[in-house]
Design a protein that fits this description.
disordered C terminus; disordered N terminus; two-stranded antiparallel ribbon; 604 residues; globular; mainly alpha
Length: 604
Amino acid sequence: MTMTTTTPATHHALLPLPTTAARAATTTGAALALTGTFLAWTYTDTFPGDLTVTGYPGGLQVLTLISAALTLLFAISGYGTKGLRWLTPGGTNSPTRLLALGTLITTAYTVIAVILTKDDNGNLLGAIELEPGAWVSLTGALIATVASLGLPDDQPQDDTTTPSALKRFLGSLRAPAPARAKALPSWAEILIIAAAFGVALEVFTYGIDTEYAELFIGYVIAVAFGFTALTRAGLIARITALTAKHRNVTLCAALVAAFCFPFTQQNEEYALIGANILIFATVALGLNVVVGLAGLLDLGYVAFLGVGAYAAALVSGSPLSPVGVQFPFWAAVLTGAAASLVFGVVIGAPTLRLRGDYLAIVTLGFGEIFRLTVNALNGVSGPDLTNGSQGIPSIPDLKLLGFDFGLSHDIGGITLGRSANYYLLMLLFTAVVVLVFRRSGESRIGRAWVAIREDETAATAMGINAFRLKLLAFALGATLAGLAGTVQAHVSYTVTPEQYQFAGSVPPNSAFLLAAVILGGMGTLSGPLVGAALLYLIPAKLQFMQDYQLFLFGIALILLMRFRPEGLVADRRKQLEFHETGQLDVPPDTPLTDTAAGTTKAGA
């Protein structure tokens, strides 16, 4: 009888260093990088952010400071320090390694950006522009990163195989799923949720308030590594479990945090970015009904946004509107929603008997037909209804109960401008759409949609009227997009056919909306909101890279499909589909639900 033995998985380190020495060096390097941020980094203030001040970090120094402080905190937590163990329920060394690497990349990026900055005469500043503080932080970050590679992996590696260097490094960044947390009083859990949304609001506000591209790029680097580290540490999974437990409290906290955003903005440009993010996030959530719940690939969804915008513009009282009428606010909203609903039914009725690629091609065609049609209704090629390529400009601001959204208003000593007014209005619309999506997903209809998405043949065999329910999903998604379109028409003052293309460097477009759903997480409540926010904010802040946006956008999608195909916000079901059980970011006892809002999936 032959006996077989298996080699147990062991915890390795990428560098053969004693664990004690590696942890001590990581702690020292992080402290050194932190200290360097309080010293001057440049001789002159030519580089934006004024890094010449000693004792007061500014600009990109703040990002290095925060990254180094988190690295130091997690490194100290690795000693088992009481009061810090709650930071790392899923692993200590993996998040420390990620934070150290993030600190190094952020600092190195700043140093390179300073060296490549040109003065008023067009000459590069060069390395001579750097003060000792920059070298201190860079050296400390490098020491912390190299030393962190000597820490043992949180996730044991299988000794029976010899993975490549890349797989070995990626494996070292994994951490086991966090164990079930000790139950806390309800009031403590609610306070944790409130604090988490407060931190999220601060991080998001900081990103929108960045005044120059170099700072925003550093912000993206720091946030990407920081969020990944917190995920590996298990903190995100813990907070996710609390939000799933207190769903109503979570939605209220999110609404309150979003409501507070315009009160933190003094620049109209930044408030306008927030309003546009809400518009496109709402449209993406409507598309999530079609794609995420019902599983229908719609490549012409932006047409529904355009129908709502054009319908509202025609009855808005614009002096160049061929209709020549002015409806009150509520009537204009209903007109836009109703027009999109009719358009959705007209498109869906003859096409929803198709499946897969055929449905995608037909919806793409209808999206282009809409754009070409409104471009042709100019009084020459067709009836004079949309002014053709010139669109409908000079759309007046909304007025509701005597409140003029185009004027500034003082509330509690804080002045809210036009963009902030429309942001708050769009926030109300978003809350309505979130409520509709949540209730739909939890209903019998929502479960039927998911059944159709998973296997339409099996769903039909179980008595589900697939065509009727798919048509309902199409109509609901179109209506939600039409609601957002009515506000978009007034925010942008004008609507033109070029705004509603399939793909382009400027959102919105169908490709952007579909990518927002996939990036955020299909079928989830918060996924499309996160995805749309990222995909709108990044191009808005990096306008100097407009010629390369589609190229970078494609690279980002490839990386996402490779490393996180389930999306940024994914439920346990999606993670089980794409990853092994040991690689999940959520606790093993988490139900098969939307981890951000607790929307139950069919078949769980």
